[in-house]
């Protein structure tokens, strides 16, 4: 009798990839800072600095405003602050938002290879949609989740788990792209692999980034679409 042919290995489906938006796909932090600075100035808080703003990178806008209103004693509803901040931010974002070139190349490469993709962000849905439309990324990134749509923002895993649900994939199969420590921690809590590209260089040694499978300590200046894509294609190693 002739030997039966060896069974063919089942191809591994392309890994789902979930992107944070601000500071990861696009350099929107200058716009968020300016929107916050103008908002606070209108409530009698002058000279809000970039250093003060940088504490909140990776944290949702509502949570940020809740903290700032408490710190500066602003007697106004958070919803009012959020509406004013979003209005100014959208004006700035529509005028100009820069996409990191290697991130655009990465999204295009993933799309061509059939990877399911989503955006999960602490920004409002209107802000996410405006930025994606203004940069042309909306054609490739059609599944989006805002922190407004889940119970808890980052560092809780809610936005990433919701994104996986909308993509119809297992969270454990997903890879997250993040620039901030709270987001990296959220990815870990969601049981997802993480590629970390710190926006603030000083945070690269944050313990939250230790859970990232791939860390570009030099941030966007070090990140390349090729390196990230090659890493995603490697077999996932089981924990001992």
UniProtKB/TrEMBL annotation:
This is HAD family phosphatase. Gene3D superfamilies: HAD superfamily/HAD-like, Putative phosphatase, domain 2. Signal peptide: none annotated. It comes from Streptomyces decoyicus.
């Amino acid at each position: 009798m002739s030997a039966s042919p060896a069974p063919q290995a089942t191809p591994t489906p392309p890994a789902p990839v979930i992107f944070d938006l601000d500071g990861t796909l696009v350099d929107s932090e200058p716009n968020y800072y300016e929107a916050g600075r103008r908002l606070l100035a209108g409530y009698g808080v002058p000279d809000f600095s970039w250093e003060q703003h940088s504490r909140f990178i990776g944290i949702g806008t509502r949570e940020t405003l809740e903290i700032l209103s408490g710190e500066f004693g602003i007697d106004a509803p958070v919803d009012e602050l959020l509406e004013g901040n979003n209005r100014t931010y959208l004006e700035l974002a529509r005028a100009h938002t820069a996409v990191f070139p290697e991130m655009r190349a990465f999204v295009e490469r993933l799309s061509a290879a059939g990877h399911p993709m989503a955006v999960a962000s602490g920004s409002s849905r209107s802000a996410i949609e405006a930025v994606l439309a203004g940069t042309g990324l909306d054609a490739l990134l059609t599944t989006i989740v805002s922190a407004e749509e889940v119970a808890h923002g980052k560092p809780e895993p809610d936005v990433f788990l919701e994104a996986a649900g909308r993509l119809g994939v297992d969270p454990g199969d997903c890879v997250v792209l993040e620039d901030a420590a709270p987001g990296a921690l959220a990815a870990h809590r969601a049981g997802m692999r993480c590629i970390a590209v710190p926006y603030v260089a000083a945070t690269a040694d944050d313990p939250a980034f230790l859970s990232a499978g791939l860390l570009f300590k030099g941030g966007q200046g070090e990140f390349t679409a090729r390196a990230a894509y090659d890493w995603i294609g490697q077999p996932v190693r089981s924990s001992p």
